[in-house]
Amino acid sequence: MGAMDTAKIRKDPEKLALPPKDAAELLGISRAQFFKLHAAGKLPAPVYLGTRAPRWLVAELRDWLAAGAPDRAAWQRLRRGAP
Fold first, then answer.
1. What is the pLDDT of residues 16-48, one digit of tens each?
2. How many CB atoms lie within 10 A of CB 77?
3. Are 75 and 64 in contact (CB under 8 A)?
4. Domain parsing of the chain, residue ranges
């Protein structure tokens, strides 16, 4: 794993949103695979902290995984409570 392991993420309650590298690490995939999934619309949408600073919410990634990792459109429907 990289410099930041998932144990550190779990211990740091202040870490609410992750950059792509750390989000990929949290999911246990490579950064390249993370970007492939993101480009294909298979990850939750990021929030942007500026024009070039996408961040993925830790709580949303965990909820998304618990829901079976649906594609982005299905995930958004689940979050809205739509059928």
1. 999 999 999 999 999 999 999 999 999 999 999
2. 12
3. yes
4. 15-80
